[in-house]
Amino acid sequence: MEYFTLDEAAIRYDFYRPKVHGIVKDWLIQAGVELKFENVVDIACGTGDSTVPLLEFGKNVVGIDQSKSMLKKAKEKGLTVKQAGFEEAYQLGPFDLISTCMAFHWFDFNDALAAYKKASSSNAIWLIYNFTFGGSAQSNEFNEWYVGEYMRDYPSPPRNKQIANFDGVEGLQLLSKSNGVVPIVLSRNELVKYLTTQSNIEAKVKSGLSYAQIESDLEQQLNRFELDTEFRYNFTYDIYQYQGNE
Q1: What confidence tens digit (pLDDT) does each residue in 185-216 have?
Q2: Which of 53, 108, 138, 205 gives the lowest tally of CB atoms within 10 Å of its CB?
Q3: pTM (2 decimals)?
């Protein structure tokens, strides 16, 4: 089953996902990367939230994604995008920066590695990163519910558990990797809406439930908790330099 393909899923993703992607600039600077690229591709760009920050330091920036619904929202932002999978990125390249946010876990590792190499210019930078919901900053009860009950009732679809980890791959030099937390503020209603942007929920919608039914269920369950508005958005990232194509 493919995810983020429903029009409603794309609308929710675009509106309710935290807009924190500008942090990638800090990561690249900390890795010693010169923020000046001729050609940049955002693989699995979705609605374009991860593409927008790349415009600051990329002369020619293109986002690619397989979902027409997600790309429709990206186009509304005025971004240059194309419907394509990671295997086709080389047709638009070569690229000096390849960025992928919250998507590598959907790819076959070896196929993606070969495709990224094929799409790279000499000394290209690869930025691969993830954001994951880390729960409440105050309520342990909510966090226990999220892990124990929410994930039971709305399980994550199967995915590649290995995010990137190109360590030891010939032709790649690790420049930086790290993890941390971005604090985000969500009202109770915004929290419910955020949860409906997850692939867990889209899987349930595709199995027959409606977004309205799911929202009602989540609202009832969240009424059990005294929730503050501060939540954690965890991140991990890996930055590599490709040393092939000399």
Answers
A1: 999 999 999 999 999 999 999 999 999 999 99
A2: 108
A3: 0.94
